[in-house]
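#struct-queue
[09:14] JT: dropping the first one here, sequence first, then the structure tokens:
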Amino acid sequence: ATMQSIAREMALSETAFVFSPERGGDCKVRFFTPTSEVDLCGHATVAAFHLLSELGTIGRPSLVVQETRAGLLTVAVGEDGLVMMDQTVPEYRPFHHLDELVASLGNADIAGEPSIVSTGLYDLIVPIRDRAALWAIRPDFPRLAKLCQSWGVTSVHAFTLDTLDPAHTVHCRDFAPAVGIPEEAATGTASGATAAYLVRRRLVPTGPQVLLTMEQGDILGRPSLIQVVIDLENEAITRVRVGGRAVTVIEGTLRF
């Protein structure tokens, strides 16, 4: 109850709490949105291990194992501060509610087949025709929240191959009203799921290793770049890593 109250007071998309390990890892991390606990959060992992390296709790470089509700997952911190976290091997579910989805996103211009994908959390991955159509999405958040709950997904992650920077892979928006987040500026778990979607459907060049850079948050005035590395063997995805760099913007002390 205390952690949930703190997350609600912080009013950020996720708040991470770091504890001593219990299951053989190096530390235990729990993640809370303003309304609920979630199994895993990519960008909060990046933030947490960025802070631990700033405090000197872990070194640069270092390789640590975090205990999460999604399992034991490796996190690498580079000399330059780049934090890359392992996610789970992707799982896929079919999606059969296109008309409801289109309506809940304000008649979004969907340009392919949406799919439910998990690399730690189940998200609905939705291809959009171009960046103008992506930015034109105006979700009906109460309706979308109920639909996400009924579909068993944490968020709707919409993307387009029409990027701001031609060197980047996709431009994204993420909507997670079912867990108290109308729109998020960076979403690590959904980025891993999106990368798996892109590789599986051959929307990006493939090989033994695929490197992707994802744009997100620009429409919110909080631009983020998320890096994803996909490893494959015999065309099957065997490893997903997601990460980026963080910046400490505020420090404080909680009294309660």
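[09:21] JT: and here's the second one, same format:
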Amino acid sequence: MKQVLSELVGVTGNAAEIVDLASRYASDAEWYLSRNDCLTALACISYAEGLLDALRLEGKVSFSWPSQVRRTKVLVGGVFDILHPGHVEFLAEAASLGEVYVVVARDETVKQSKGRYPVLSEEERLKLVRSLKPVHEAFLGEYPPNYHQVLLRVKPDIILLGYDQAWLKEVIESAAARLGLKTSVKIGSKLEGYSSTLLKEKIIKGILSNT
């Protein structure tokens, strides 16, 4: 609304009076919205839009309502235990493809797949991932793992797997196809030298060398 009104600043004559009235309704809408009166705010903004649309139909003004462009949804998943530069690079790669949604593995899922619990709890890992700039939304996965539920929640355009998750590609492609989703599954770049396991080993060696 503000963008359209700014485009109509130079309008003259009777049309200028109607644009001014629409501007007042728009201001009223903001005022009512700030006081949580959503119904009155909706009525005000509807009047404003109606007035401007009427002017456009009469040929008095020319403008286009800005369209809301839907961003590509990119889904990634992982444990994210002890964040390191490799995680950040992976998420940055995902962000270069679109809006990033992250599913963080549950503690029990990690225990089942790796035979041990992660160093940080699922809530701690989720909090850290949510704090990262490339991440639009992060949430905990299901236990037992349920690919269908995650896919239905996000409905991603792209799923970016880590280079060490390549074995999941066919499984996820099959799950997406069964749900009728046109999802592209890609494999992320391999980043040498970064691993939570290697980082833990360095920490342990550092502690032992100082004892």
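[09:30] RK: nice, looked through the second one.
[09:31] RK: The domain at 73-204 is CATH 3.40.50.620 (Rossmann fold).
[09:31] JT: good to know. The mean pLDDT is 87.
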